[in-house]
Design goal:
The structure is a homodimer.
Chain A: E1 2-6, H1 15-27, E2 33-38, H2 40-49, E3 58-62, H3 76-79, H4 84-93, E4 99-102, H5 106-117, E5 127-132, E6 139-142, H6 152-169, E7 176-180, H7 191-202, E8 207-212, H8 214-217, E9 224-226, H9 229-254, H10 263-266, E10 278-281, E11 287-289, H11 296-312, H12 314-328
Parallel strand pairs in A: 1-2, 1-4, 2-3, 4-11, 6-9, 7-8, 7-9
Antiparallel strand pairs in A: 5-6, 5-10, 10-11
């Protein structure tokens, strides 16, 4: 099992990536190999700094270019072919590695994955599925920001992609698929929501549980939450910030109190870095997208997500599901 | 100052409304009078039960009909003209009261307000503005669920309505108006967001601070947050539920601990019932909408919002702003 890790993606690159890679190697079985993709000299310096100048299961693949915040995502493949994102994806495409992980610009990783790995046959728009912590374990939200202005047929495809992810990576046999909406009844919401409801309700391959309101998400009303990337992105960012805000209120109140309360333990369920990364759903390969602000632990988790995705053969399962659907129609 | 209160709206009607009204009367100046609108016998029984069979500033206006969850909002005025919602709004229209407050079906209160009070000249769609607690005091979110599929011109109108609300009721001299979007730059988001950005940026009457991402809301990045009612509704319901979820995690962890930490005090800033109600923005009158699950304290707060809205002359200010705009175009 070989994973290429973009070493230049996080806000703390390459130190964060190097620490995450070393953590993954020491925690994993012996069959994991990691290829750090980025500026060789920077990575070598950082490895020395972290006291592991070399490791038998760690190699460096040089990529001199770097994607910058101002770069238009769609132009990255053409204009920065030697960037860590494009080089890492090419390694995967050519079969040198089994998966690619990056905390670089989501738009650039997405565009690069589409261009280099290509979408699976029958996929309109690949989607990003992100796990949200809830009272009943994580919920997979698809799409969490890659696609805005989606049509009902595309939202229904997100449901099918998420359904297979939930089976293969969350271990849910018959995932409960819900549609994010502003009311429970089928006729609630805008026209897009109403039409999406009808398409999902007709789809016998899904365990569709109907509309899910904002307040039901956190109660664990579904395993897969289908939504347009606009509202998904707003929700995701809002959730992270609200959790920080509330915990901040609490810390302020507690700073003069003597208590044995371990806040980190209490709020472990809210810790995004446990989840780490989101595999892009619908491309012909394993491309895992991480938050730019990821700590080493999140990078380590993302590498684990990548290896699980490869082992579960999720991409094959998605391809077969789409093939059966297109053949049957 | 006379306020009509729909006594049949909350999940705990009429007990909640009666308690809220009595609380408002004992807290307010002597010039407040409340008219409870609903089934006279039920309200009289409840007043006796709460130990105040009569009050010099409280009257009952009989309304035998009741709006039920299954009733189509748009048909309520025609089919249930003797419901507490329609009767209360008519009292306001005829000048018998200065404002109307209801925790009944939001759709029915909205439709009834539109039909009975009428929209102000130049208003496309009245909007619901809801206060969200943040680190820097409340943010007014417009629209929070009354309107979905809004066009850029309508979103811009929400910004102008919210701008006047923030001046008149939040006491902010030059409200910072932000557009909810999935990135900071003007070209982020879907076409609707991009066009709305351009309209708001051109509007010299607004202090437009640009796009606001999901994570910036809670940091108090703006005073008025403009969004379509679909995402507004999802966010609002999600926020309430996340706060409950996190506080629940904490209570569980604390139940065996000895501590002097007063959670209610710590999280007072998150308490929606302090805000109570949302005036419908853009109708020719003061119609305040409350959550169906409101406790008495929220009803009392909503009555305060109604009297403040009347005293601030917000409706006149909105009418003048629209007139100047239409005259100038």
């Amino acid at each position: 099992m070989r994973v290429a890790l973009d070493a230049m993606g996080t806000d703390g690159a390459p130190a964060t990536e190097v620490a995450g890679a070393l953590g993954a190697l020491s925690d994993s079985e012996d069959d994991l190999e990691i290829v750090l993709v980025g500026r060789r000299s920077l990575i070598e310096d950082e490895l020395r700094r972290q006291g592991v100048p070399s490791h038998p299961r760690l190699t460096i693949h040089d990529a001199p270019d770097r994607v910058l915040p101002g770069d238009a995502p769609a132009a990255v493949v053409r204009r920065k072919p030697e960037s860590s994102i494009v080089v890492g994806l090419r390694l995967h495409k050519e079969g040198a590695v089994d998966a690619f992980v990056s905390a670089g610009s989501t738009g650039a990783v997405m565009a690069g994955s589409l261009f280099v790995l290509r979408p699976l046959e029958g996929v309109d728009r690949p989607a990003v599925g992100t796990l949200l912590p809830t009272a009943r374990g994580p919920v997979l939200m698809v799409d969490s920001g890659a696609n805005v202005d989606c049509k009902p047929a595309q939202l229904a495809q997100f449901a099918r992609l998420g359904n297979i992810y939930a089976q293969d990576l969350m271990g849910v046999k018959r995932p409960r698929v819900g549609l994010l909406n502003i009311g429970e009844e089928p006729e609630k919401g805008d026209e897009r929501a109403q039409e999406t409801y009808r398409v999902l309700a007709r789809d016998g391959s899904l365990n569709f549980v109907g509309n899910v309101e904002g307040r039901e998400i956190i109660r664990g009303a579904c395993d897969v939450l289908v939504c347009d990337g606009f509202v998904g992105n707003v929700l995701l960012k809002f959730y992270e910030s609200v959790a920080h805000f509330i915990i901040g209120l609490l810390k302020d109140a507690m700073k003069d109190l003597e208590t044995t309360l371990d806040l980190e333990e209490v709020f472990r369920v809210l810790d995004y870095s446990e989840y780490g990364g989101a595999p892009l759903l619908g491309v012909n390969g394993v491309s895992v997208i991480c938050h730019g602000g990821s700590p080493p632990k999140a990078i380590q988790s993302a590498i684990r997500v990548a290896t699980q995705t490869v082992r579960s053969r999720m991409v094959d399962h998605i391809a077969k599901e789409l093939e059966a659907r297109n053949g049957g129609e």
